[in-house]
Design a protein that fits this description.
Low-confidence stretches: 1-19, 106-125, 400-411, 417-425
Radius of gyration: 38 Å
Pfam family, one: GerE
Strand content: 5-15%
Number of strands: 12
Number of domains: 4
Structural class: alpha/beta
Number of helices: 16
Largest sheet: 5 strands, parallel
Order of helices and strands: HHEHEEEEHHHEEHHEHHEEHHHHHHEE
Keywords: DNA-binding, Transcription, Transcription regulation
CATH topology of the largest domain: Rossmann fold
Protein name: HTH luxR-type domain-containing protein
InterPro entries: Sig_transdc_resp-reg_C-effctor, Tscrpt_reg_LuxR_C, WH-like_DNA-bd_sf
Distance between the termini: 133 Å
Shape: elongated
CATH architecture of the largest domain: 3-Layer(aba) Sandwich
Helix content: 40-55%
Organism: Streptomyces sanyensis
Length: 425
């Protein structure tokens, strides 16, 4: 054997040194949910006093429902609660009970559930508080708790988007230092969506789009990380085909678009969009105003646009432009439907025009001023779309000359059917 093969490696050699375990990241504080936690605390204090309560938590995917439930359970334990997901699980006597249900399909009411109707009905020897979390749009909504779940105290909580200070504080927790102003502008694009925000920060750090300094994190490059594209892909695959199609078409047309822009491209009647829009509004991906459909979240909009291949984006935009240039059937002018309908005064003035009278002569005949006659003539010109007396007679059906006029000037007769129903003054 050679010396190389027989030589023993030092104890400190990397080949023999034990690989240190990956550091465990400390649990980050919950940010921006102080008001919601205060409402949960009220319900828990009510239960600790011997009452029964129900707290429902609703939010779109990625809103942090699981993290919020964990914080609520920790708060309940600090208040002396026994926590779990099954009401029959035994616990220390005299301690209140917290039951946590995440995205439930309402289970049958437990024996003794009717006791919850009373304000201070104990559940066995413990008070009971239910904490139930739903995906937005899947819960009981305004209808309240399910039948058979009467309760003396209820709190309905919706996890909305985080405000900018809380979102930037989460970024600072993840990075260890606050973000610089340019980086903060990029992070605000996540719109306070907790999952998108966390994935954006982690993705930018992985791809070195930001640099963490001693006092702040600096922006290096503003680009969409790959892990965000993967997150969006999983979100899209959770949607039905018609929702995914509407979402991508709307994104290509712009952050805001109208239903009239979408319908010709999707080739569906308006009624077919009702349920699709309801589903997307429930996910928080789209919002519908009085006239427009919009993406509330700028980063999500950019991600959806980025998921559509460039040639298809160009084709969709050309199709939308072509649809805007073709007037809809309702916008096309209707063909004229014959002589316009005139009231009694208008009918009489046209008859006097047909007799060849001047404005002064018509005024004496009608007992009004020439100025009033001129006013009525202008209104008649506007109504019939003409600018002369001869054209007025033609449009209103007076076209046959007569030799029986007792007054000076030409006299014509109306076509058959003209001014039917017109009165005389």
């Amino acid at each position: 054997m050679t010396g190389t093969t027989t030589r023993q490696q030092p104890a400190s050699s990397p080949a023999t040194r034990a690989t240190p375990p990956d550091p465990v990241r400390p649990r980050l504080p919950l940010r921006g949910r102080e008001e919601e936690l205060a409402r949960v605390r009220r319900a828990l204090e009510f239960g600790a006093d011997g009452g029964c309560a129900l707290v429902t938590v609703e939010g779109p995917p990625g809103s942090g429902r699981t993290r919020f439930l964990d914080e609520c359970a920790a708060l309940a334990q600090r208040l002396g609660y026994v926590t779990g997901s099954r009401p029959g699980h035994p616990g220390p006597a005299g301690r209140p009970r917290l039951i946590v249900l995440h995205d439930p399909h309402f289970p049958a009411v437990e024996p003794g559930g009717a006791l919850l109707a009373r304000r201070h009905a104990p559940y066995g020897d413990r008070a009971l508080v239910r904490l139930v979390a739903y995906r937005q749009g899947d819960g009981p909504g305004a209808a309240g708790p399910p039948a058979g779940w009467p309760t003396a105290h209820t709190e309905r909580i919706r996890l909305a988007e985080l405000r900018a200070p809380a979102a930037l504080q989460i970024a600072a927790d993840l990075l260890g230092v606050p973000p610089s102003a340019p980086l903060a502008r990029v992070l605000r694009g996540a719109g306070g969506h907790p999952k998108l925000l966390v994935e954006l920060v982690e993705g930018m750090r992985e791809e070195q789009s930001l640099r963490v300094g001693a006092h702040e994190a600096q922006l290096v490059e503003d680009r969409i990380p790959h892990r965000l594209r993967a997150l969006l892909q999983s979100m899209l695959l959770d949607l039905p085909d018609e929702c995914r199609q509407l979402l991508r078409v709307a994104a290509v047309l712009g952050r805001e678009s109208t239903v009239d822009d979408l319908l010709p491209i999707l080739q569906v009647p308006p009624s077919a969009l009702l349920l699709v829009l309801d589903r997307l509004i429930g996910t928080g991906m789209l919002a519908v105003g009085s006239t427009r459909v919009r993406f509330p979240n700028e980063l999500l909009w950019r991600l959806v646009v980025d998921s559509v291949p460039v040639p298809l984006r160009q084709a969709l935009r050309r199709q939308a432009a072509d649809c805007r240039q073709v007037p809809s059937p309702a916008a096309r002018p209707e063909p004229p439907a014959g002589p316009p309908e005139l009231n009694g005064r208008e009918n009489r003035i046209v008859q006097l025009v047909a007799e060849g009278l001047t404005n002064k002569q018509m005024a004496r005949r009608l007992g009004i001023s020439p100025h009033t006659v001129n006013y009525h003539l202008k209104k008649l010109f506007q109504k019939t779309g003409v600018n002369s007396r001869i054209a007025l007679l033609r449009e209103t059906g007076w076209n046959d000359p007569s030799e029986e006029s007792p007054e000076p000037g030409p006299r014509v007769r109306p076509r058959p059917g003209a001014f039917e129903g017109g009165g005389q003054l």
